[in-house]
Amino acid sequence: MATAPRTQTRAVIAELVQSPTLPVLLILAAMVIGIAALLPLVQSSGATTTAGNIQALEQEKTSWQAQLRELETQVATLGSLNRIEAEARDRLGMEPPQVTHYITVDVPPPESQKLPSRFLPNEHPKPQSESSLWKDLFGWMLP
Amino acid sequence: MTGRLAQLQIVDHPQYAEEARLSHNVEQTVTDRRGALLDRNGYPLAASEDTFDVMVERDAWKARAPGDEAVSKLTGVISVPAQQLLDQLNSTDIFEVDAARNLSFEKAEAVRKAGLDGVRLVSSSHRVYPEGNMAAQVLGFVGRDSSGLTGLEADLDSVLAGTKGSLTAERDGLGRDLAFGRREEVAPQPGADVVLTIDRYIQRLAEQELDRTVKENKASGGTIVVVQPKTGEILAMASRPTFDVTALDLSDDSKLALYRDRAITDMYEPGSVFKLVTTAAALDLGLVSPDTWWYDSGVFKASEWYVHNWDFSANGPQTVQQMLSKSLNTGAAWVAQQLGPDRFYDYVSRFGFGRPSGIGLSGDAPGRVRTPQDDGNWRDIDMATNSFGQGISVTPLQMAMAVATIANNGLAMKPQIVKETVSPAGRQSNAPQPLQQVISPASAQTLRNMMGVVVDGINKHYLDVQGYKIGGKTGTANLATADAGYKDQAYISSFVGIAPLDDPAIAVLVKIDEPQGVPWGTVVAAPAFSRLVQQTLTYLNIPPTEEALVSKLGQ
Fold first, then answer.
1. Model confidence pLDDT, tens digit, residues B7-50
2. How far is CA A26 from CA A30, A31, A36, A51, in A?
């Protein structure tokens, strides 16, 4: 009873071994296994590259931040009173007033010019009057 | 061979394991930006900029020679002699050494671009002072680890420093971070910016006038305090001698005394400016008015002791106003006698003397007030001398705040140096804090008028604030020594004043220590007050009196 299937299997194997497509199949199988084996390497390489890029970007961010803070300090130093006085005295030829004269003028004083710096307190924006369709409509209808 | 293996693998295992861990893992504390100290308008007085420390790995570098290309590249950028660096590497047991600290961004970039194995850059920070040495004693300074050591830097360290973080990462044998290695990072939090009540413009004026006055009078030092009476905010606080915060030398112990903020730590006998406190108390209790008179025989007797006027004069019948204008010691002692010790020292205490000012800075001295209750050696003569500011010790800030109280209709405000704290979490503002009504508004007004009369009697050569009516009082006190005596021929000259008189915007104290030559407060301190107030009122956009406008327009 058991000899019939065993005989059939042997026949199939023999046929397969003698088949001209076997080498092709074997090569394909080897290629699939090779590619599968390369996948973790490719994955690992990709992750390493990404991590390297992240580190490079972090480095770049640190550099930009350092430059920014250096510039902020430069701006603050350029706005220092000692420098302003030196510029006024040496470059513009100004001198401290010897006598103070008080006069009234009818125009408001100029806005004080502040440093463009992160150090300065935020300016509070002026609240803008809200506009709506209904307001516009009533505004148009009412005198 | 088996024995050697056992030694390496079992006996010396912990040592080699630790070396491997140190070699492959880097653990470091990371900090974010330290908060800046800003003036009341947001201008930075002290801020931090990013710098870099250069760490060199010992094992990778110790075998190198001074002429090695990598050594030349590195030492050329960090400006350290090659032999010095190699000696440092060969004489250390630690894994890596700091070859340079606080490198600028440009230099750090040069090191980075050199791509040297076994060299890494660690982020650091460096404190910079855009306004130079301004308010050095108030601001203080930080140490190499960016922790505050003195002044506001130390007192507000927890606010300015933020929260530290940590970084743990793996690296290869050459000290480079492994791109795919373990990396754990706890992000640090930046410190908060602190907005001070100091105004950089007024602070600079105060320091310039102080420097000029100290120099002109060959004085040993001095202090100027400018207070906003309505809020108690300190607009300027300058002391001399001072130190250069931009070029610190912490190894020099002789400079330690320069670091303290003398305006709050140093006590002195205020002299005649204290007659304002004596007069305020008597006016407030209705015991005297400006026109109340007494007879000045030139001597005031307190038990078995005698008090004389500064010029040993005897002026006959004198009013309280004349007592203040002529600065008569006998008159001040007489006014104190009308008060009695209990009421006199009660007002002294209410004006804030004998206890710390509450400004919130380290070293806030209480001063020294001897009273019958707490000193068994107290005598009648003590109150007599205290009435004109001798035998009693105060700080410059206390004296300035007392004058500010008079300027603020008798309401004492808590002195403030911190206006608000600005952090990513939001702003925290410090509102002005009233302490107590020391004298009535009417008494304060009367005393201000009397101070105005005092100023009217001063030669305009010494005190003339053009366009404004001001009030003030001079003081010239003997310089007390540690052994309860007085230094021979050494004085403290001072002037306290308020401006403008009808609606005071500032209260100012000018104190000059040990001036050479004429020591009188009128001659030494009043001119500095005059120049400082003139410029400050203009800067604050406070309009001059109508009379000043008319007279100037008429020219």
1. 888 888 888 888 777 777 777 777 788 999 999 988 999 998 88
2. 6, 9, 15, 38
A109–B541 C-beta distance less than 8 A: yes
Q: Do B467 and A100 touch (CB under 8 A)?
A: yes
**Could you give the C-alpha distances from B18 to B57, B59, B95, B482, in angstroms and in order?**
16, 15, 12, 58
User: What is the pTM (predicted TM-score) of this model?
Assistant: 0.83
**CA separation for the pair B450, B472 (Å, rounded):** 9
Catalytic residue among B125, B239, B272, B493: B272
What's phi and psi for B240, nearest 5 deg? -135, 145
| B297 part of the active site | no
CB < 8 Å to B109, chain A: 63
SS (H, E, C) B267-321: CECCHHHHHHHHHHHHHHCCCCCCCCEEEECCEEEECCEEEECCCCCCCEEEEHH
In 3-state terms, chain A is what percent helix, strand and coil (to 5)? 65, 0, 35
Letter for the amino acid at B388? F
CA distance B251 to B184: 38
Question: Which among B37, B50, B555 is the top mutation candidate for probing chain A, defined by the most A β-carbons within 10 Å of its own β-carbon?
Answer: B50
What is the distance between the alpha carbons of residues B204 and B522, in angstroms, rounded to a whole number?
A: 23
Beta partners for B169?
A: B26, B183
Phi/psi of residue B421, nearest 5 degrees: -120, 125
